[in-house]
Design brief:
There is one protein chain. By secondary structure, this protein is an all-alpha fold. It has 6 helices and 2 strands; from the N terminus they run αααββααα. It has a two-stranded antiparallel ribbon with strand order 1-2. Belongs to the plant homeotic and developmental regulators ALOG protein family.
């Protein structure tokens, strides 16, 4: 992965006591810590002009802006890792550490087995159960980071965000939160149209045979 753009870890040499607890929370839809402004591509200017910044902000979609913020947040996490972790050495296990770290910024109440509201979608009173990142937010986050990794030179077969351990973890979070919150994350199946009555089926078959006979006569 020589072509993979690495996050700069040299910024931590001046403050060796910095750790991941120093990150602050942001106001994005997914409760992520505040990222540092890292470029997404090596060709990005280090100090863009105000006109360039305005044009980029208006042309980028909401998805692209969110993907940039998520990528920068993950880069900050790698820099604050002890020891600092290079992106080329990042594995699925490190991605799982990142996801568990994000739970401290979660806003979704996940009831424990001992909670009287376990399995209730609308609990009637507050409870001391912990707040976690919702499964849907984590699933969308991994999708954006997986795309950003390959956009920055990473090989698809070496993408840590697509590791099997990450997929299994997301599935476990989905199932556990579905039970704890009393909701279902299953995709709705498309309803098949009801079968036609025998009379209509016979009429369609008859009309089809008549049209084919007319075509033969014209031939």
């Amino acid at each position: 992965m020589n072509s993979l753009q690495e996050f700069d870890t040299s910024s931590n040499t001046t403050n060796p006591n910095t750790n991941t607890s120093n990150l602050t929370s942001s106001s994005s839809s997914l409760s992520l810590p505040l990222p540092l402004p890292l470029p997404l591509s090596p060709s990005s200017p280090s100090q863009p002009s105000s006109s360039t910044t305005t044009t980029t902000t208006t042309t980028l979609s909401r998805y692209e802006n969110q993907k940039r913020r998520d990528w920068n947040t993950f880069g900050q996490y790698l820099r604050n890792h002890r020891p600092p972790l290079a992106l080329s050495r990042c594995s699925g296990a490190h991605v799982l550490e990142f996801l568990r770290y994000l739970d401290q910024f979660g806003k979704t109440k996940v009831h424990t087995n001992l909670c009287p509201f376990f399995g209730l979608p609308n609990p009637p009173a507050p409870c001391p159960c912990p707040l976690r990142q919702a499964w849907g937010s984590l699933d969308a986050l991994i999708g954006r980071l997986r795309a950003a990794f390959e956009e920055n030179g990473g090989k698809p077969e070496a993408n840590p965000f697509g590791a099997r351990a990450v997929r299994l973890y997301l599935r476990e979070v989905r199932d556990s939160q579905a039970k704890a919150r009393g909701i279902s994350y299953e995709k709705k199946k498309r309803k098949r149209p009801p079968p036609l009555p025998p009379q209509q089926q016979q009429q369609q078959q008859t009309s089809g045979s008549n049209s084919s006979s007319h075509v033969c006569m014209l031939c």
